[in-house]
Write a structure and sequence with these properties.
With 602 residues, the protein is mainly beta. It is 15% helix and 40% strand. The chain is elongated. It binds one DNA strand of 8 nucleotides through strand 10, strand 11 and strand 16.
DNA sequence: CCCCCCCC
């Protein structure tokens, strides 16, 4: 084992001086949990050895904490460090800064239980300022690049005087920031920037804007208030990289941010922000934590999530008044699908909705979309703080594009935004014979059922009446024979009325026939005419209604009915109302027929 | 110190 994985002897000394060593191999001699402000943000500190030197201040970035909690890193484990940064931590109040090695990515080469301690490593002193060993000394590792300070023996690593420029300092990883320590400099990219917003409440009023900052180790939100808005708003530009120092840290309110950080920062009068023109490639763009669409079905409402999906379809732009504020709102609904063969409705707002063009079925990526619920299905919506990208150049987007074009486009998609109105789906399909034999309609609410029926007769007598012209009143009016019409329900006389149909139809299926009654809206669907048009035709010709009714014969529809016992003139009998008459959806109808045939065969 | 983010 030891032959196979030789430790990168001497590499720790160079690393702690700021050099970049390619894939150094180290042994873990110890690890311990570091107490932290919040329980879910634990950190791990490692005692690392390169076989020659040992360093006790190495940390795992929190993203890879699971390496220790899963038991992958135990004492004596040999690890390959794939990515790391060195940084300076000021022990608040103490005179000297401390160098720290933050491991961003690692691979365990040999589990600790299969090996013992290698060599007799000596602690590397904190104030190690001697020159690094000359390069000709034989080493088994490669120095790929070194920081400016590594060929300068005075090193800025332990310097914190204000008159050196920030560029000369080693920067701190965002993930190492805490409210307990405020001497730091981060080098971070602005991945999102809000507009300037004002507020006014019981605690006062003012204005603010916020930005999202990202580096290789993590991300954090930063907010500027009041006069600091004027100072920084124009200075800070989206996608650019800055050195930032002297902000105040506080606990983040997770409800309002999807960023993976327990803290957020507030700009202060002492905050310094300078642009970094020498942008290292290792400052990432936006970081996402995508959740697949099928899993959103189980996510709590109001949670902020990151999502990637193909825009399968889009609705037209809709404009309406907000009920609460009365403000005019614009929205567009987009259906996103992904490899889980699930779809979800995404709502875009305002100008984002207006300008959106989904005709090419692009990949949509959103950081910080809000999960909502409508009619029992889950939906998502963008917020002002969301970042939306169309066809971003990231591996996940290319993978999704490939899946959709090759396969997903023809897959059946389960839409998790579908309304789940149980009663509608459960309406049983039964025959007319069953309706008559099953003694339906005894209950208070009546019984609901549906069937495919053929119209045998549309009764034209008394199919039309003059109704109250008030919008929501369909009461029959009395013709006062003086040009006025009285509505008893509204207790008013009107100079006009509206025509309404009151349908009564004899419908048949394979098993029998029965009479069903229909409200105007459904009778209109069978006649293919509005009540008003039928009424006007009748005024011109007394035969018109009979002729119109004749044309309905042998038309077929799906009748969704309610059967209920009804008492009229002391006579109690079953009354069936077709509450909805719909054209036959053969896909749905045939599925039901096939299901019943299968049931018969089993 | 904000934290509103809308509708069916």
């Amino acid at each position: 084992m030891t032959e196979k994985y030789e430790l990168s002897e001497g590499s720790l000394r160079l690393i702690m001086k700021g050099s970049q060593i390619q894939n150094p191999i180290m042994q873990v001699l110890g690890s311990k949990r570091i107490a932290s402000g919040s329980a879910d943000k634990e950190r791990f500190r490692l005692l690392l050895s390169d076989g020659k030197y040992a360093v006790s201040f190495a940390m795992l970035t929190t993203q890879i904490n699971d390496k220790t909690t899963k038991g992958e890193i135990v004492d004596n484990s040999i690890i390959l460090i794939k990515r790391y940064i060195t940084s300076v931590i000021n022990n608040s109040g103490k005179a000297s800064n401390k160098k720290v090695l933050v491991i961003l990515e690692l691979e365990t080469l040999v589990p600790g239980d299969q090996i013992t301690k290698i060599g007799d490593p000596q602690n590397l002193p904190d104030d190690d300022t001697e020159d690094a060993p000359p390069k000709k000394e034989s080493t088994n590792f490669t120095v790929t690049s070194s920081t400016k300070s590594s060929n300068d023996s005075t090193m800025n690593v332990t310097t914190k005087t204000a008159n050196i420029s920030m560029q000369d300092q080693l920067t701190h990883p965002i993930s190492s920031l805490t409210p307990y320590q405020n001497k730091w400099v981060i080098k971070a990219r602005v991945s999102n920037k809000s507009n300037i917003r004002t507020w006014s409440n019981s605690r006062g009023e003012g204005k603010l804007f916020s930005i999202d900052l990202i580096d290789e180790s993590g991300e954090i939100k930063a907010t500027a208030f009041r006069e600091l808005v004027d100072k920084f708003y124009d200075l800070v530009e989206i996608d650019k990289v800055y050195y930032i120092s002297r902000c105040q840290l506080k606990l983040a309110n997770k409800q309002f941010s999807s960023l993976k950080n327990d803290y957020e920062m507030t700009f202060t009068n002492d905050t310094i922000i300078t642009e970094c023109h020498d942008v290292a490639a290792d400052i990432p763009q936006t970081r996402y934590d995508f959740i697949s669409i099928d899993k959103i079905a189980h996510v709590e409402v109001d949670t902020l999530i990151d999502i990637i999906g193909i825009c399968k379809s889009t609705s037209d732009l809709q404009t309406f008044q907000a009920r609460s504020t009365g403000r005019e709102l614009k929205k567009r609904e987009v259906t996103l699908v992904d490899q889980s063969n699930s779809g979800i409705a995404l709502t875009l707002w305002g100008s984002e909705a207006e300008n959106f063009d989904g005709s090419s079925q692009p990949v949509i990526v959103i950081k910080g979309a809000k999960v909502g619920e409508f009619g029992g299905g889950k939906t998502i919506s963008t917020l002002l703080s969301s970042i939306m990208k169309i066809n971003p150049d990231i591996p996940e987007a290319h993978r999704l594009r490939g899946w959709f074009d090759n396969e997903g486009v023809q897959n059946n998609i389960t839409n998790i935004s579908a309304k789940s109105t149980a009663s509608r789906f459960d309406t049983p399909w039964i025959s007319i014979k069953d309706v008559q034999e099953q003694n339906l309609g005894q209950g208070e609410r009546g019984d609901y059922f549906q069937f495919k029926g053929t119209v045998l007769l549309f009764r034209s007598e008394r199919a039309l009446y003059k109704a109250c012209p008030s919008e929501d009143c369909n009461k029959k009016v009395n013709d006062l024979e003086n040009g006025m019409y009285r509505c008893d329900k509204c207790s008013r006389d009107f100079p006009n009325f509206k025509y309404l149909l009151l349908g009564s139809v004899n419908v048949a299926d394979w098993s029998g026939n029965m009479w069903v009654s229909l409200f105007a809206s459904e009778a209109e669907k069978i006649l293919g005419m509005t009540s008003q048009a039928v009424g006007e035709a009748s005024e011109n010709s007394p035969q018109a209604l009979a002729e119109i009714a004749d044309k309905t014969h042998f038309k077929q529809f799906i009748f969704k009915c309610r059967a209920k016992m009804d008492t009229y003139n002391d006579e109690t009998r079953l009354k069936t109302v077709a509450i909805r008459v719909e054209p036959i959806n053969y896909k749905e109808y045939n599925a039901q027929v096939i299901a019943r045939i299968k049931q018969c065969l089993s």
